[in-house]
Structures are given as C-alpha cells and as structure tokens.
Design a protein that fits this description.
It contains no helices and 10 strands. The protein is mainly beta and about 110 residues long. A hairpin with a 6-residue loop joins strand 4 and strand 5.
Length: about 110
C-alpha cells in the first residue's frame, strides 16, 4: 500500500519560511492530484493547495502569493514552500492523495 510521509515542519518566527515535503513510497505523484491540507484543533481539515498531474496548481485564497506547491517526480515528492508565515498558519499540515490513507502530518508553529 502506498504511504505518504510529511516532513519539514517546525517552529519559525512570523515572516519566516519553511518547506514541507511529502514523500510517496511509490512513483505516483505525477499521476494523481496531490493536495496539502491543514487542520487546527477542533476544526475541519482544509485544503491549502493542490497540484494536478499536468502541474496546474490551485491555492486557498489566504495563502496565495505566500505558499507554492511543486513536485519532483524523480523523487516521488511534493513540496509546499511557505513564505511570510503568520501565526494563523500554525497547524498540522498533511499531504493527501485520494484513496491513500492520511499520514501523520507535520506540525508548523509560527510564533515569536
């Protein structure tokens, strides 16, 4: 079964940057829509960005211009570059492909 593993989270000051990585255990990132989601405690998981098989990307309005989703097919990895981070970006981030179990996510904390 394909697994997705997120990494790259951490503590960063407001205005800082992080790059999240989503590694797939098989070569599938070029064949499926891959999304980055985030979930705050007590709230529903929300889509932050996704990338289609043709490299078309879409973003949640509040992250447009700050976040960039990209992929490296050779490494079976999808990235989320996050710049100008804000305290409200503090949540757990997950990557997801439809039909594949959710991973553990990676915590992002934006605080001074």
């Amino acid at each position: 079964q394909v697994q997705l593993v997120e990494s790259g989270g951490g503590l960063v000051q407001p205005g800082g940057s992080l790059r999240l990585s989503c590694s797939a255990s098989r070569n599938i990132v070029d064949s499926y829509v891959v999304g980055w989601y985030r979930q705050a405690p007590g709230k529903q998981r929300e889509l932050v960005a996704h990338i289609l098989s043709g490299d078309t990307t879409n973003y949640k309005e509040s992250v447009k211009g700050r976040f960039t989703i990209s992929k490296d097919n050779a490494k079976n990895t999808v990235y989320l570059q996050m710049n100008n981070l804000k305290p409200e970006d503090t949540v757990v981030y997950y990557c997801h492909i439809l039909g594949i179990p959710w991973g553990q996510g990676t915590q992002v904390t934006v605080s001074s």
